[in-house]
Amino acid sequence: MRNQCWLTIILLTILRATWAYSMHHDTHPTHPQEDKKQLLDRQRSHCFSCASFVYLPLWSQLMHHYYPPKNFTDRCWQPDAGIGLVPCSSACFTLVERIDGEDYISEQHGVIRGCMDRLLLFGLDDDVRNILNAYENQRICRHTDRKLLRLFPLSGQTDVVTFCSCQGDFCNDHDMLRELSSSKSQHLHLVILFLSTWILLIF
């Protein structure tokens, strides 16, 4: 009789434990898709996403080629906390290019920032994207032909653009006004050096 009593107590304890375990997992179900999404969110960084104001009048053409930026503002040259952000699982980018006026005489430059995977609507070529994503924990800037990146032509004078890539939260925050001024100064210095050398050779 005593053995039957103990057996009943053990069975009731097991049933209670099983019921409590079942209730806990019913109220807190595990969804593999949600877990995967949370993991991807943790792996993503964030990039500044903006374009200088000069792109806005051209966007009716560019919208067929590029993802829209979060902001059109000249603060994009020197981004701050008010500039838009996008989550990014690839590298961040900064693009600076010459944009000619309608008469192809006035010269101006524009800057775009964003996530590499959200630059072109139809994506970069795999080999180009792999090269641009290859550098970790550093910012790499290149003067390259826009045709290699399949960028929309905005200058009849040059196909050369400055394209910077980096990986990490808000890494595409570099002051591109300073970069542009430095590049122009270097170009002017080379022109003066060339002219000086040419004059010395003549005389």
UniProtKB/TrEMBL annotation:
Range of residues in the leader sequence = 1-20
Q: Does the keyword Endoplasmic reticulum apply?
A: no
InterPro entries referenced in this protein's UniProt entry, alphabetically:
Ly-6-related
Entries under Pfam families matching the protein: Ly-6_related
This protein's GO cellular component annotations are: axon; neuronal cell body
> Which key words tag this protein in UniProt?
Signal
A GO term (biological process) for this protein?
response to odorant
Q: Where are the transmembrane segments?
A: none
Respond yes or no to whether keyword Cell inner membrane is given for this record. no
Matching entries from PANTHER family are given as: HOMOLOG OF ODR-2 (TWO), HOMOLOG OF ODR-2 (TWO)-RELATED
Name under which the protein is recorded: CRE-HOT-4 protein
UniProt organism field: Caenorhabditis remanei
Q: Which gene encodes it?
A: Cre-hot-4
